[in-house]
Design a protein that fits this description.
Distance between the termini: 26 Å
Structural class: mainly alpha
Largest sheet: none
Shape: elongated
Helix content: 55-70%
Order of helices and strands: HHHHH
Strand content: under 5%
Length: 193
C-alpha cells in the first residue's frame, strides 16, 4: 500500500514512513547499547567518538520522536470535517501542508553527519583493534578488551547503516511528498521546509 495519502504531520501513512519510524526506534536502542558498552572503558579506545556519537544520536532520536509525538497529538486534537474535497476549506488545508519533522532538510543533514561520526568511530576502533592485536595474551584483560572492542565496532557499523538507511528513506519520502520536480535540498520552494 505504497500509495496511501500522506498525512499533514508526523502520522505515518505509508509503508516507507512506518519504516522510518522503526529506524528511529532502532537507532535509539543501538545508541543506548553502544553507550553502555563504550563506558566499560570510559570510551577511551574509540577516542570518545562512540560516547559522543551515542549522546548526539540519543539527542537527535529523542527530539525527533518527541516532535513526531507532538505532531500526532496535535493532529488528533484538530476537528475533522466531512466537507466535500472541492470546498474552500479543503483548499486552505492543502495550502498549509507541512512536512513531518522527520522529513525536514535539517533532520536529513544531521542524520548524514551522524553517519560520518559513526563511521569515524568504526575507523578508530579498527585502528585500536589492529594495534592491540599484537599484545593479545600478554595481559590478563586483553582478550576481554578485544572482544568488547570488536562488538562495539560491529554495533557502530550497524548504527551507521541504520542512520544511512534513515537518511536515504527520508530523502525518497520527501521527494515523493514535495514533488518530483524539486530536489530534496532546494530552499524555499513552494513553502516547504
Amino acid at each position: 500500500m505504497e500509495s496511501l495519502p500522506a498525512g499533514p504531520t508526523g502520522v505515518p501513512t505509508s509503508r516507507r514512513q512506518r519504516l522510518i519510524h522503526r529506524l528511529l526506534w532502532a537507532s535509539l536502542g543501538l545508541s543506548l547499547v553502544i553507550f553502555a558498552i563504550a563506558m566499560i572503558w570510559f570510551g577511551w579506545d574509540a577516542r570518545y567518538l562512540s560516547v559522543i556519537g551515542s549522546i548526539a544520536t540519543l539527542t537527535f532520536d529523542a527530539s525527533l520522536l518527541f516532535m513526531l509525538f507532538r505532531d500526532c497529538r496535535r493532529l488528533q486534537s484538530q476537528p475533522h470535517t466531512n466537507a466535500h474535497p472541492n470546498t474552500q476549506d479543503a483548499n486552505q488545508r492543502a495550502s498549509r501542508f507541512q512536512l513531518p519533522c522527520i522529513l525536514h532538510k535539517a533532520s536529513i543533514i544531521l542524520a548524514v553527519g551522524l553517519v560520518a561520526l559513526w563511521l569515524g568511530a568504526v575507523g578508530v576502533l579498527c585502528w585500536a583493534l589492529s594495534l592491540t592485536s599484537r599484545y593479545e595474551g600478554k595481559f590478563p584483560t586483553s582478550r576481554a578488551w578485544f572482544a568488547r572492542a570488536a562488538v562495539e565496532t560491529v554495533l557502530c557499523a550497524a548504527h551507521a547503516g541504520v542512520l544511512g538507511a534513515y537518511a536515504v528513506l527520508c530523502m525518497k519520502e520527501r521527494k515523493k511528498l514535495v514533488g518530483a520536480g524539486l530536489k530534496w535540498y532546494q530552499l524555499g520552494e513552494y513553502g516547504v521546509q
